Amino acid sequence: MRIGTADVALARQGARQSAQLRLVLSIQMSDGRSVLSPVLRIEPGWGEEQAAGVLREGIPFDQEIATAGIQRIRVAVYDRGSGVGGSLTLPFQRQP
After folding, report:
1. Radius of gyration of the chain (CA)
2. Mean of the per-residue pLDDT values for the chain?
3. Which of 9, 11, 64, 77 has the fewest Cβ atoms within 10 angstroms?
């Protein structure tokens, strides 16, 4: 998954740029339960060339989760730099 950068405030420190994101997964189980992940701190940093690619393609995010019994996953992201947050709900269907 990639996090869009349209509303992310990148901080510049010399030739490096960084972001301060917080991410939470809300997992809706097929039995009706909701499971929240701990707040994940995502504080990547890039050189100028890498930052240009991140601005075009988004900030990569990978998280492995056990998929048994999941109905949908809501991903919520908050950018501490800009104060902007957003979320996306993804339906989940296991392949046989």
Report:
1. 15
2. 87
3. 64
* Structural domain total, the chain: 1
- pLDDT tens-place string over residues 41-82: 988 888 888 888 888 888 888 888 887 889 999 999 999 888
Range of the domain at 21: 2-91
pTM over 0.85: no
26 in a structural domain: yes
Six-digit token string for 46: 């890039």
For Cα atoms 83, 87, 89, give the angle at the middle one, nearest 5 degrees: 175
